[in-house]
Amino acid sequence: MKILLSHIKELIQVRNNAPEKVSGAAMKNLPTLKNAWLLLEDERISDFGIMDGIPNFKVDQTIDCSGKIVLPTWCDSHTHIVYAGNREQEFVDRIKGRSYQEIAANGGGIINSAKKLQASSEEDLLQQSEERLIEVMHLGTGAIEIKSGYGLTLDAELKMLRVAKQLGEKYPIKVTTTFLGAHAVPPEFKDNKQGYLDHICKDMLPKVAGYQLATYVDVFCEKGYFTVADTNQLLKEAKKYNLIPKIHVNQFNAIGGVAAGVANKALSVDHLEVLNEEDIIALKGAITMPVALPSCSYFLSIPYTPGRRIIDAGLPLALASDYNPGSTPSGNMNFVVATACIKMKLTPEEAINAATINGAYAMGISDSHGSITKGKSASVIITKEIPSYGYLPYAFGSNLIDQVIINGELIA
Ligand code: NIG
Ligand code: FE
What we know:
Elements: E1 2-12, E2 32-41, E3 44-50, E4 61-64, E5 68-72, E6 74-76, H1 88-95, H2 100-105, H3 109-118, H4 122-138, E7 141-147, H5 154-170, E8 174-182, H6 193-210, E9 216-221, H7 228-239, E10 244-249, H8 257-263, E11 268-271, H9 277-283, E12 289-292, H10 294-300, H11 307-312, E13 318-319, H12 333-344, H13 348-355, H14 357-362, E14 380-385, H15 391-394, E15 401-406, E16 409-411
Parallel strand pairs: 1-4, 1-5, 6-7, 7-8, 8-9, 9-10, 10-11, 11-12, 12-13
Antiparallel strand pairs: 1-2, 2-3, 5-14, 14-15, 15-16
The structure holds N-(iminomethyl)-L-glutamic acid (NIG) and fe (iii) ion.
């Protein structure tokens, strides 16, 4: 199947030799082609150029993109979209003054979601999760990372990961999976955190790896959850199974998790709402991608990750949604990009780089996603008629997407 996108007002993120990520000042550069065409052949980007001198292609379908912008689909490198039920009561409790931590300490939070998930059948969980997946595909997400971590028992963690894997098999969107057994200490291990860590290491890791249910491993490294020592212990064990770390750090407190992530060769360190100078220094020259989750800051009314400072320090930055029932019940990457511009002072170019090529890096898929490059996945967003790509974050509340193509499939 050959699809030609013709008369594109501006084709965004065009890279002949795509880098695996962009850092620092280079994030200001967003290469584009004006009045362009793009040829998609089955699942791949086959070619592109400017309308002036376009070859005479024989194609199955032509989409006239006059007045429209075309960009690679978003790469959402951090989500928890496999979950059961919701937590709107906690949302109302927070409005009335209770804090996220207070709610969690009283049996709410992650434990609340774990109870709901443990009681759900795999079929029900799949059905609830696929509604979210379909929603974000329509919102322009073409690749998504999905974490476990609302199971907190061997069976429930495996159930979550199986559902995540099924989503990737059923839909054209690229799915990567992350094992987050160490998301919270479950009530059964209330006064025995080490017992739970041992359970993860001895019972969960071998099964997750044995069934090939995850590529990545995650830990919530935070006061009241898991310490830096716990994180090191778990990541060391996970390494034996070739699971690559991508970790939750510095959401509420800077406790040294960033340096631990870097030392453990984490692919990404995510959240970073609270970031000190040592954390920035630890990230310099590292393979580790800092990932900001501005929708989480918005929803919880916590500080925004200092993205401007991160980029100005010469570091790369990725943006992701964190879609989950507790801290971010939204997977809208358009809102993420807009919020990064509005609240974190990223330019539209930086924010788009952060949500495409750098998001792909934070998922380990920048060889196939994140830019308009020959041979990469045929996954693009076609906008409505808009004045410029800067209009996307500017008109932050409007849905400006006309069509989405994911891995060569037109999403209705
Ligand atoms: O990334 N912070 C840890 N985990 C999730 C939220 C967990 C929850 O509240 O359900 C996050 O924000
Ligand atoms: Fe998260």
